[in-house]
């Protein structure tokens, strides 16, 4: 017995199966997409929560770790903060390295001494002569050597204390010795007027220097302006061995050329000792404060920027300058002078 | 479409979380802010003004679309910073067919250019469509078409937007003027500096750019003006 399925019924059944299959596929697809969407939304929720937690942790950590004191920054559209470490390092380099390069040329150094020379001669205390000693050094050249600077930050200034030595100082000059015999002694010793070349070097000494760099605005930049007085010190000269030999020889000659009374008188006056005392007094030297130079700190507000290749001039209005224990702060508000185009004018500061 | 947006959001969130994890690790480890850094802080308002001054900006994408960026918003409230650009993506053939879009991202690591100026680029990583219009009516088909080009739009915007110059100059040397007058002779010289940006972070409405400056030894040079 054979069943014959009508062609129409077969077609209907196929269509039903096809429909069921399509529905199943669509259903599974929708289900899968919903599952995926749910998973994605779950991931978004998890990431949002993690972001929130991380932001909270960040805020807490950031508040407790602020070595530069960013939280204390002054107002201003733009602020620049230079840490004291950096200022100290910069100033140390700029001051000590530079001072090591400073050459000084002291000109026309002069020592003058004169006195009556008295001695017990012929049973009486007599004025033998009037003695003049002049030491002239037309040029004394030397080099400065700075010690390690110490800084103190506060207010609007950086105080500086350091020691400076003058090294490698040497010069040539002349010694003028004049012996004017007086009265009886003039008969004994007469007069003497001699000039001799001398040379010497600076006796190494260390001198204390104190002053400050005052921080001030110069348009767009902070400049550390030196505030030091004249650097006054007493420079001691160590005449060369040849110079002392020459002094001794001159005195000896004075004695030997004259008579025994003259020799006695000059020896009594101890002229070489007086010359030494004068030399040891040294020279008062005054160095101008310009051995410290103004220093421009390395960050500045820019007065012009480029926007799409066009220059735009800006006006930086400094509104804050302050030195804390950690930072030097410099704050400014900015305003465009000329817009690149009318519709592109940056609005005044602070506007959002 | 919703799924595509969600996947994009997941991608952006993952990047944000990754960035935050790095920042939190640095902050909790005490290394967020290097203590020797020179700090430059710029307000949201300044960056917004400078960014807006270069707008409108337009560029073509895939020879099919014209992207016009018209406005910018800047927020430095979260640690990473948020920059939102608004604009319109339109068909090159028919400007009546368009999508209003916004692109979001943060600030890429700034550079110090050869003139010592700080230059900041916008790092865009998210593209969203607020409205799509074709022939005066909302069009889902066009939305989908624009969506498929989202990455190209982001890339084109990243490349096409002019970098923002922060009006701060970081000098590469400190010049010290000399003097050859009188009893003191001081040669002119300079202290060379090497600047390297170590971190960029948004805190309390300011973008902070932290720069490590290493100081070289003083070098004598020929006498010249101080600046």
Outline of this structure?
Chain A has 352 residues and is α+β, with helices and mostly antiparallel strands. Chain A contains six helices and 15 strands. Chain B is an alpha+beta fold and 227 residues long.
Q: Can you describe what's shown?
A:
The complex is a heterodimer of chains A (352) and B (227). The longest helix of chain A has 58 residues, at 7-64. Chain A has six helices and 15 strands. Chain A has 352 residues and is α+β, with helices and mostly antiparallel strands. In chain A, strands 2, 3, 4, 5, 6, 7, 8, 10 and 12 form a nine-stranded antiparallel beta sheet that branches. In chain A, strands 1-15-14-13 form a four-stranded antiparallel beta sheet. A two-stranded antiparallel ribbon of chain A has the order 9-11. In chain A, helix 4 (241-257) packs antiparallel against helix 5. Chain A is 34% helix and 45% strand. Chain A starts with 6 loop residues before the first helix and ends in a 16-residue tail after the last strand. In chain A, strand 14 (310-323) and strand 15 form a beta hairpin. Residues 339-352 of chain A have low confidence and may be disordered. With 227 residues, chain B is of the alpha+beta class. Chain B has four helices and 15 strands. In chain B, strand 2 (57-61) and strand 3 form a beta hairpin. Chain B starts with a helix and ends in a 7-residue tail after the last strand. Residues 223-227 of chain B have low confidence and may be disordered. The chains are: A alpha+beta (352), B alpha+beta (227). At the A-B interface, helix 1, strand 1, helix 2, strand 2 and strand 12 of A face helix 1, strand 1, helix 2, strand 10 and strand 11 of B. Strand 2 of chain A pairs antiparallel with strand 12 (184-185) of chain B, so a sheet runs across the interface.
């Amino acid at each position: 017995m054979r069943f014959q399925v009508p062609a129409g019924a077969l077609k209907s059944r196929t269509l039903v199966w096809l429909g069921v299959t399509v529905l199943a596929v669509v259903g599974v697809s929708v289900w899968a997409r919903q599952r995926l969407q749910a998973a994605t939304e779950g991931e978004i929720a998890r990431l949002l929560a993690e972001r929130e937690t991380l932001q909270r942790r960040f805020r807490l950590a950031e508040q407790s770790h602020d070595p530069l004191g960013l939280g204390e920054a002054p107002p201003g559209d733009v602020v620049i903060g230079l840490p004291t470490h950096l200022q100290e390092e910069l100033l140390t380099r700029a001051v000590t390295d530079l001072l090591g390069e400073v050459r000084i040329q002291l000109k026309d150094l002069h020592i003058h001494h004169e006195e009556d020379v008295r001695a017990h001669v012929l049973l009486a205390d007599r004025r033998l002569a009037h003695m003049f000693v002049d030491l002239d050094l037309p040029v004394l050249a030397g080099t400065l050597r700075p010690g390690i600077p110490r800084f103190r930050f506060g207010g609007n200034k950086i105080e500086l204390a350091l020691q400076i030595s003058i090294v490698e100082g040497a010069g040539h000059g002349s010694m003028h010795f004049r012996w004017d015999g007086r009265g009886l002694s003039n008969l004994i010793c007469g007069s003497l007027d001699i000039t001799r070349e001398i040379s010497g070097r600076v006796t190494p000494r260390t001198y204390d220097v104190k002053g400050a760099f005052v921080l001030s605005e110069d348009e767009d930049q902070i400049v550390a302006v030196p505030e030091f007085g004249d650097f006054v010190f007493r420079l001691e000269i160590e005449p060369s061995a040849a110079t002392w030999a020459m002094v001794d020889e001159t005195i000896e000659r004075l004695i030997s050329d004259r008579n025994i009374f003259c020799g006695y008188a000059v020896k009594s006056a101890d002229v070489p000792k007086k010359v030494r005392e004068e030399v040891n007094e040294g020279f008062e030297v005054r160095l101008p404060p310009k051995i410290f130079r103004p220093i421009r700190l390395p960050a500045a507000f820019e007065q012009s920027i480029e926007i799409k290749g066009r220059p735009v001039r800006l006006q930086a209005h400094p509104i804050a300058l302050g030195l804390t224990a950690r930072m030097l702060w410099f704050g400014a508000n900015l305003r465009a002078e000329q817009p690149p185009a009318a519709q592109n004018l940056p609005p005044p500061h602070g506007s959002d | 479409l919703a799924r595509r947006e969600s996947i994009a959001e997941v991608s952006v969130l993952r990047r944000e979380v990754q960035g935050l994890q790095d920042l939190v690790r640095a902050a909790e480890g005490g290394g967020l802010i290097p203590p020797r850094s020179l700090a430059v802080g710029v307000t949201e308002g300044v960056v917004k003004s400078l960014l807006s001054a270069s707008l409108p900006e337009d560029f073509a994408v895939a020879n099919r679309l014209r992207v016009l960026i018209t406005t910018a918003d800047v927020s430095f409230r979260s640690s990473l910073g948020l920059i939102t650009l608004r604009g319109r993506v339109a068909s090159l053939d028919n400007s009546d067919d368009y999508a209003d879009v916004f692109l979001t991202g943060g600030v890429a690591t700034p550079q110090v250019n050869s003139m010592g100026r700080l230059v900041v680029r916008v790092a865009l990583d998210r593209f969203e469509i607020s409205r799509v219009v074709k022939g005066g009516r909302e069009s889902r088909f066009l939305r989908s078409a624009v969506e498929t080009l989202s990455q190209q739009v982001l890339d084109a915007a990243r490349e096409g937007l002019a970098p923002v110059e922060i009006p701060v100059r970081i000098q590469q040397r400190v010049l010290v003027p000399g003097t050859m007058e009188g009893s003191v002779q001081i040669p002119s010289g300079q202290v060379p500096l090497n600047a390297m940006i170590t971190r960029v972070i948004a805190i309390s409405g300011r973008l902070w750019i932290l720069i490590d400056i290493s100081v070289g030894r003083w070098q004598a040079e020929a006498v010249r003006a101080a600046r």
